[in-house]
Amino acid sequence: MKILITGGGGFIGSVLLIGLHDKYEIISLDRDQGPRQTKLQALTKDKITFVNGDIRDEVLLDNLMQKGIDVVIHFAGGGGNNACMKDPALAVTSYVHGTHLLLKKSLKYNIKRFIFSSSQAAYSTFKAREMPLTEDMELMPDDLYGALKAVAEHEIRDSQLKFTTLRFANVYGYVQGFNEIRKGGAIENFIKAAYDGSDITIFGKGEQKIDYVNVNDVLHCIEIILNDLSAGSDIFNIGSGKLVSIMDIAKTAAEIGREVFGHQINIKTVPAPEGKIWPDRLISIDKANRLLKWKPLVSLSDGIKQIMTNAEAPEK
Ligand SMILES: NC(=O)c1ccc[n+]([C@@H]2O[C@H](COP(=O)([O-])OP(=O)(O)OC[C@H]3O[C@@H](n4cnc5c(N)ncnc54)[C@H](O)[C@@H]3O)[C@@H](O)[C@H]2O)c1
């Protein structure tokens, strides 16, 4: 089976390349694989074709897809809402126009399935909603990122292609062989603090709850989808199935940090800046559990420990 993975140089994309390179013929398309490519090439034993290019380049897509692609795994993207707001033109053209072009070419070259990385942000970010959020609930995005994912989803649903759309919670984890602590959200910040032996800082009382799913569970989900290309088109929430408070994540990171790095790590609370605390948001994973027979296997503490035991000096 031949697979085109867009965003292969990114966080989740790299995990997919490493996890799938032995079983499938893969092309990784990314506009900025940069120095990661050399490492990924070695980790995947030169089995992957790396193409440095943009999903908005129609000629390039034709060249790649006319050679025969069975599945497109579309994970290219411009980051979450902060990144989208920094460069809205790039975000809109990548998430919407880029997805449009990939769909058009996927139809032209008869691909068998289009797998798309959507986000829980398509349901909403700032609005409190009934929980857990299920796939049949209306999408009510209230930031640019969520809106772009909702538009892309809409176009995929209206295409004539067979598709699987995955609405991810927050994805965290370790990319085998990279040993880096990524820049990111709460988990990454807490792990960096533990590494440095500095205080973990949390906003307010740390009562806000968040849904984190490990990147290896995302890989596992993609493997399940690839194993049954005959399944119908569908949309699935992919999360941990439970919420954990920021304070509990901080305590877990501090405890594992003490064990791994030998530092005493204190948790400091500071008043929350405006707009930094959002309503809790839990996505139901019952449908993925029922129809894909998928469930998350990596606990938050195991996931944090895995990052910490492999961590190297974080970027400052
Ligand atoms: N990480 C998460 O928590 C999370 C949660 C929900 C959804 N997602 C979605 O999953 C996908 C992958 O996320 P990630 O965390 O690996 O992101 P990432 O930023 O690490 O990787 C995305 C990659 O896409 C590439 N890219 C961006 N625009 C492109 C374009 N026009 N053409 C070619 N390549 C382009 C970037 O260079 C980057 O390497 C994204 O679409 C993201 O929106 C991620």
Folded structure, characterized:
By secondary structure, the chain is an alpha/beta fold. The protein has a domain at 2-171 and 213-239 and 282-296: 3-Layer(aba) Sandwich (Rossmann fold). The chain has 11 helices and 13 strands. The protein has a 7-stranded parallel β-sheet, sandwiched between helices. The protein has a two-stranded parallel sheet with strand order 7-10. A two-stranded parallel ribbon has the order 8-13. Strand 2 (25-30), helix 2 (36-43) and strand 3 form a beta-alpha-beta unit. Helix 3 (58-65) runs parallel beside helix 5, helix 7 (186-196) runs parallel beside helix 9 and helix 9 crosses helix 11. The model has no long low-confidence stretch (mean pLDDT 94). The structure holds nicotinamide-adenine-dinucleotide (NAD). Residues 6-7, 9-13, 30-32, 54-56, 75-79, 94, 98, 117, 119, 168, 170-171 line the site of nicotinamide-adenine-dinucleotide.
Shape: globular
Major β-sheet strand ordering? 3-2-1-4-5-6-11
**CATH C-level category of the domain at 2-171 and 213-239 and 282-296:** Alpha Beta
- The percent range for helix content is 25-40%
Task: Kindly estimate the percentage of residues that lie in beta strands according to DSSP.
Answer: 15-25%
Please name the CATH topology of the domain at 2-171 and 213-239 and 282-296. Answer: Rossmann fold
Please, how many helices? 11
Determine the N-to-C terminus distance: 41 Å
Architecture (CATH level 2) name of the domain at 2-171 and 213-239 and 282-296: 3-Layer(aba) Sandwich
Tally the beta strands: 13
- Secondary structure category: alpha/beta
Kindly report the average pLDDT value: 94
How large is the radius of gyration? 19 Å
Give the low-pLDDT segments. Answer: none
* CATH 4th-level superfamily of the domain at 2-171 and 213-239 and 282-296: NAD(P)-binding Rossmann-like Domain
Order of helices and strands: EHEHEHEHHEHEEHEEEHEEHEHH
- How many strands, which pairing sense, and closed or not: the largest β-sheet? 7 strands, parallel
Q: What are the bound molecules?
A: nicotinamide-adenine-dinucleotide
